[in-house]
Amino acid sequence: MALKGADIMKKLPKTNCKDCGLATCFAFAMKLATGGIKIEACPHLSPEARNELDASMAPPIKRVTIGTGQKALELGEEEVMFRHEKTFFHQTGIAILISDKENESEIETRLNTIKSFRFERIGQELEINLLALSFESGKRDRFEALVKRVYETTDFGLILIADDTDVLLSAVTLCADRKPLAYPITKENVDTLIPKLKELGVVAGVKGKNLDEIAEITADLKAAGIEESLLDPCSDNILQAIGDQTFIRRAALKKGFRPLGYPTITFPCSMYSDPLKETLAAAALITKYAGIVVLSQVDTNFLLPLLVHRFNIYSDPRRPMTVEEKIYEISNPGEDAPILISTNYALDFFIVSAAIEETGMPAYLCIKDTEGLGVMAAWTSGKFNGESIADFLNTHNIQDRVKHRKLIIPGVARKLKDELEEELPGWEIIFGPLEGSDIPKFLSEEWKVS
Ligand code: SF4
């Protein structure tokens, strides 16, 4: 749990020397409590005070990184039980399981599908994050060949799953510089694995029969200097899984219980064989705190809704998604191109711009800053009225780019017509369609410059 300024103040030298750049130790304490300055900024802390502050100010859920480079996946550092209290920070990683029991062509097809999987929503790319490679064949050579192949032909972060400790160790060694997750680290194998995990700097996937056992293992790992772990409480079904995930999150955030202060890994792929049930379980676990969900299949019909769900859960409720206020030129518009106007609510922008692009017709899309409000909310709050729209268009000299004087406004903003005609004398105000999806038909049938 975060320390308050007054608690921090007790550990400071209280000399007000200003070496931290602040006027007093009290100012430093207050800024440190809100994350505005680093502990290192005060050079006069005793080692004991520094260690105490470091320990008490560490996030209640440890930050863990799997993978390297652009595909590195960061997990943890969550601060709230409920998204609306602040926001969730590090989105659940989606991992696809590949078993070494699959034949060559199945693996090839699966890898190609995963590599080519791309989906964009509101300007954000939604993607699969990790590959979970599972030792099921009983043949060590076969598993090692799979690990090598995936390591050499993809840049995904890797989860290496092998109950055989020797096989797990050799697989981890093959791709250690990719910083994989080694799973499972259990009560039985933890002592054997600790030296190698520490030497290679990989992430420990801790599996326990219950939460007490998990806490014992993470305590052992931490005592050995292994800081990055993920927790698997071995939940059999979705109800139990949600209970376990909630308990872990609550123990870390509300009780400050460090041995459970790590992100989690979950396996909807082994809870259900029906792909729909598996997807629904994954969706529930994305909502309720899973660090990673491991899926058995890579079917677009199931993955797309899951990725959109994750996107929604992990968008920041404090900040509407917005785009920059400006005039967007679509397909090199000329002086006959239509002018459309809308708000900077990101969803509206991407719907309207995609619809215009679909027509192939060059156009000017004028996006007015409404602080992320949609058309009607912006109108009622005075951020999208005749005066502000006219100011925006005049400031950007839209009249110099076209030879006509026609402005297409959103169909839902009919009340704007009179205001705009008053503010933009000589302009014809045209109602666009009510739905963005009708823009192509509207433009092809209605747009004429006479
Ligand atoms: S450097 Fe340390 S001792 Fe000096 S004012 Fe800042 S907090 Fe206080």
Describe this structure in words.
The structure is a single chain. With 450 residues, the chain is α/β, with parallel strands linked by helices. It folds into three domains: 5-57, 3-methyladenine DNA Glycosylase II, Chain A, domain 3, CATH 1.10.15.40; 64-313, Dihydropteroate synthase-like (TIM Barrel, Alpha-Beta Barrel); 326-446, Rossmann fold, CATH 3.40.50. The protein is built from 17 helices and 17 strands. It has helices at 5-9, 25-33, 47-57, 104-116, 140-153, 165-174, 190-200, 211-223, 238-253, 268-271, 275-287, 300-313, 346-359, 375-380, 386-395, 416-423, 439-446, and strands spanning 64-66, 73-75, 93-99, 119-121, 124-126, 130-134, 157-161, 181-185, 203-207, 229-232, 265-266, 292-295, 326-330, 339-343, 363-368, 406-409, 428-431. The protein has an eight-stranded parallel sheet with strand order 10-9-8-7-6-3-12-11. A three-stranded mixed sheet has the order 13-15-14, sandwiched between helices. Helix 11 runs parallel beside helix 12. The protein binds iron/sulfur cluster (SF4). Iron/sulfur cluster is lined by residues 12-13, 15-20, 22, 25, 28, 42, 44.
